[in-house]
C-alpha cells in the first residue's frame, strides 16, 4: 500500500503543478455533462491524460476509472485487480472562477477495496494522503506531516456541516428544501464546491460533517478514505455505502444524528 500511496502522491503533485502552470486567467468550458452548468474544461481532459500516462508508465497492467475518460484496461496479477479512480479536477467551477477549493483526486483499489487515497487541494498547497489502516496525513511543503483526526463528541446542534448542490434545477429545488430543514438544527452550513475537499475538511476538523446528493465514485473515493482513516464514518442512507444518491460523512455519533435528520426529508428524490 505504501508503494501505491507514494505513486499517487507523486502523480497528484505533478498534475497539480501542470494545472497551475497552464491555467489561463479565465478557463473556458469546452463541453457540458448533466446540464449547462455542469462544465468540463480542456485542462480537465489534459490533466486526466497526464495522470493516466503516469499510472500506465509505472503500472501498465492496472485499470483506470476516470471522470473524463471512463474505465480502461486492467488485469488481475499477484496483487489482485488494481484499479485507479481519478478525478482530474474536482471543483471545476471553482477552478474556472479562481476560487481555491479545487483539487486533484486519486484513489487506488485492490479487488474493489480502496487502499490508498490522495487529494491535492492545489491552490491551498495542501495534499491529503491516506493508506488503508495507516491513518491520514496533511502534507504541506516545508512543514512536517500533520496527522489528521476528525472532530468527535460534537452534537448535531453544534455541528458545522458542509454540503453541495447538483447541477439540474429540479434537483437543486429539492436540495434547497432539505437544506431549509437542516439549517435551523445545526451550527451553520458551508458550501465549498468540491466533494473531495469537503471530505478532507471533515478529516482535518475544519467542518464536523458533510452530506450531498449527486456525488460520483471518483468524487468521494480518495477523500472518503482520508476521512475514514481520520476517524470519520462515511456512508449513505439506511446502512447503504456512500453512493450517488446520497453521501454522508461525520464522526460516529454525529453521523447517526445527521442521518436521522436527513432520512425523513427524503433527500434522494428529485423535483
From TrEMBL:
Belongs to the inositol monophosphatase superfamily. CDD domains: IMPase. It comes from the Bacteria. This is Inositol-1-monophosphatase. Its EC number is 3.1.3.25. It catalyses: L-histidinol phosphate + H2O = L-histidinol + phosphate; a myo-inositol phosphate + H2O = myo-inositol + phosphate. Mg(2+) 2 binds at residue 90. It is an enzyme of class 3 (hydrolase). The keyword Magnesium applies. GO terms for biological process: inositol metabolic process; phosphatidylinositol phosphate biosynthetic process; signal transduction. Mg(2+) 1 binds at residues 67, 87, 89, 219. Its cofactor is Mg(2+). Transmembrane segments: none annotated. It comes from Sphaerisporangium album. GO terms for molecular function: histidinol-phosphatase activity; inositol monophosphate 1-phosphatase activity; metal ion binding.
